[in-house]
Amino acid sequence: MDKIALTAGALYVIILLRAGGTFAVGWLAAAGARRSRFAGRISSAKFQRAEQAIQRWGAPVVAVSFLTVGFQTAANFLAGSMRMPLPRYLPALFVGGAAWALIYATAGLGVLEVLGRLFAEQTALGVSAVAVLLLAVCGAVVYRRRRAVPSSGDTVADGS
Question: Under a CB-based contact definition with an 8 Å cutoff, are residues 142 and 149 in contact?
Answer without folding.
Answer: no
